[in-house]
Amino acid sequence: MENAVRSERSRQMILDAAIAILAREGPGRLTIDAIAQEGGISKGRVMHQFRTKAAVVEALLEHQVEYFDKFAKDYFAAAGAGNPEAQLSEQILAFRESVSHPQSLVFAILGSIAENPELLSVVREKTAEKVVRIKAEAEDPDLAVLRWQAAQGMVLAKMLGLCPLAPQERDRLFDRLLDSQAWSAQPKTKATRKPKPKPQKK
Length: 202
Hints:
Residues 31-50 bind DNA. Residues 8-68 form the HTH tetR-type domain. The protein is an all-alpha fold. It has two domains: 1-51, Arc Repressor Mutant, subunit A, CATH 1.10.10; 60-183. The chain has helices at residues 2-25, 32-39, 43-49, 53-80, 86-100, 106-113, 121-137, 141-159, 167-178, 180-183. Helix 1 (2-25) packs across helix 4 (53-80). The longest helix is centred in the N-terminal third of the chain and has 28 residues, at 53-80. The radius of gyration is 24 Å and the shape is elongated.
């Protein structure tokens, strides 16, 4: 039991060191040697847990998936029951969380995952399932997907360093995307023309 606790502690220490390197220096600086130096542990201790850098990145991705799975579970337990757009709202909130939470790894680890695209297969499958659920609950599936894509776009722009929005403005836009009333379909009414006044007889 004590060995298992020690092993889990070492694993978490290694992941914390990898997170620090990714957030501070980017994926190009993530190596086994750098992780060992950052964590103040031996290279052998790192390799006992993770044989390669790719294994570290895979563990980080799994950690991120687990974090947002718990995020979704907590949301549905607390607020999802009374929300007819619960699936969409949870996704928009998760996107906002991914850019605002200081421990978020989304924008930091994608560069590393690019070296091994197969790691994204699990995320891709989960995303496809979520979009199916978003469409199923929506009165207007196309509009729901557009709102979902807009939220994702702000995250991607932030990850790529292309987002010109201040954090306050980005939060305001996320709030707009969450506002179901602002996006409710309004029936189009034809404008009625007023009858032209008849010319008066002289």
